[in-house]
Amino acid sequence: MGEVVLASVFGATGLYWALTAAAMPLWDGFAPGSFFLPLVYGALLTLLSAGVIVVPMLTGGTEQQAAEEPLRKPLLVTGALLFAAVATEPLGFVAAIFVMLLFLYAVVERLPPLVAFVVSAVTAGTLAVVFRTWLGVPLPLGPWGF
User: Fold this and answer.
1) Model pTM?
2) Which of 10, 82, 117, 120 measures 20 to 30 Å from 96, CA to CA?
3) Under a CB-based contact definition with an 8 Å cutoff, are residues 119 and 126 in contact?
């Protein structure tokens, strides 16, 4: 029940952001205006919150699983985030994020290994393109050059 209440609060916040963005300027010359980030973040927050509410209803719920292992997921996710933060400099951004996501998908979420590998690779590659190429952020390069 707590997850539904929290997801509803986040969903309402996301909806508020998206609706507020509609009143902002849409275009500033050559780039999107100030509406862009609140609209995107609001839409993502609303959709993900809806997923938190709807998916357990469709799959039979995860309350029993959460009750069996109350600390397993939070500790594993915290460890994965800590690993990514520490390993980004020596391994490089792409490799550290790939390993972190692979661990989260394969071990924490227990997805099939091939699915976890492909989704991790696509996500890490997409993040590299967005930050390094499109935004020009100097990301740490590992010993392999990526």
Assistant:
1) 0.58
2) 10
3) no
